[in-house]
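Incident log, entry 3
Record: Myo-inositol-1(Or 4)-monophosphatase (262 residues)
Problem: checksum mismatch between cached and fresh output.
Input:
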Amino acid sequence: MPARDLELLVEAATEAGRIARGYFQRDPGIWHKPEGAGPVTEADIEVDGMLKSRLMAARPGYGWLSEETPDDQSRLQAERVFIVDPIDGTRAFIAGEKGWAHSLAVAENGRITAGVVHLPMLNATYAATQDGPALLNGQPIHVSAQHEMSRATVLATRANFDPGHWRGGTPPACTRKFRPSLAWRLCLVAEGRFDAMLTLRPTWEWDIAAGSLIAERAGARVTDRFGAPLRFNARDPRAPGLIAAPAPLWSSLHNGLADNPG
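Fresh output:
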């Protein structure tokens, strides 16, 4: 089943890319969600509608959780659930930058079994199942071999390196970089182009579902910020932050946080 689900997700993500490219750098309509939840565009809405129609027609017994669909929580009764971000990195999309992605996953009883992150403007499709390798455009990928934090490059926003978050007020001695899509950040760690990624804010499931599986299958340890395993299709679909890295770097990041045991 995960392999067949993965094939379905790849096909749907490819179609999502075709739709989104039709709006990219063409001044799509933009709205702002209530309570500062961020922007949404015509492209987000059309992609979401296509994905829901296509995926639910193929798997009518599955539940549905998407950033752009009101959540009625009927998904909580389903054994398997689609978890989708139609466009992860909408601000980058609006700005005409290429680092946005379609993130599609299937969760079964709380665990991700298949996931795809597709970046149509970069010709990159990351994919994995729960029992297979992490792939980039069909080729296996693996996390970096970097073990030393002082030589590591970590994907994170500047706010995550505020001294108040870190034991003794000292952020890790590493190089910080940023990419706009959380799903892509996880895949860049999986690919070994960056050594780790970190976010300390509550994180929506649709941002991390597919990428977390891809990073895990590439050899990363992926947990919430407190070190707990990720679980999906929760009543409140948010994780308390995220750490993804090869085991030695994961330990350095986790143990360095002020609210985690050393």
